[in-house]
Design a protein that fits this description.
The chain is α+β, with helices and mostly antiparallel strands. The chain is built from 4 helices and 6 strands, in the order H-H-E-E-E-H-E-E-E-H. The protein has a 6-stranded antiparallel β-sheet, with helices on both faces. Helix 1 (3-17) packs antiparallel against helix 2 (23-37), helix 1 runs parallel beside helix 4 and helix 2 (23-37) runs antiparallel to helix 4. The radius of gyration is 14 Å and the shape is globular.
Length: 151
């Protein structure tokens, strides 16, 4: 996708989430909207922090791991280190947790608000699917999500 196409998707996402501030409703709509508008994505959704673990939240794709220990796998590591991870080959990531055997690459964006903390997780069945452009795009999508749930 071009930068212009990503910008248009972000504008549409902002419009979609602007009328609601419930974190679960907006997480559900974000995951659905992006899943259905991006190519070569086989899983897209949220893991939300709950009592020291990441618990499966709203998503689209095949059934997924329900709990991820903080510090484990790509999601748990991104959350613990508070930084976005772009993984070209998930099988080369030490400690990768296999939830969908079809996944080959992944982007995980952590977020932290007063209401909710967690990660946006995006998987692809294609190695090296995600570039710096997608990293920026998904971080921007998470920013829109965070702003939408602020009181």
């Amino acid at each position: 996708m071009s930068e212009k196409q990503y910008d248009l998707l972000l504008q549409q996402l902002q419009a979609l989430l602007s009328a609601e501030n419930n974190h679960l409703a907006n997480a559900a709509n974000l995951s659905s909207f992006l899943y259905h508008n991006l190519e070569q994505v086989n899983w897209l959704g949220f893991y939300l922090e709950d009592q020291g673990e990441l618990i499966l939240g709203p998503f689209h794709g095949q059934p997924a791991c329900t709990r991820v220990p903080i510090g484990s796998g790509v999601c748990g590591t991104a959350f613990a280190e508070k930084k976005t991870y772009v993984v070209a080959d998930v099988h080369a990531f030490e400690g990768h947790i296999v939830c969908d055997a079809a996944s080959e690459s992944e982007v995980v964006v952590p977020f932290f608000t007063e209401q909710v903390q967690g990660v946006l997780d995006v998987d692809s069945p294609v190695k090296s699917r995600f570039s710096d452009a997608e990293k920026v795009f998904f971080e921007s999508a998470v920013d829109i999500y965070i702003r939408s749930i602020q009181p």
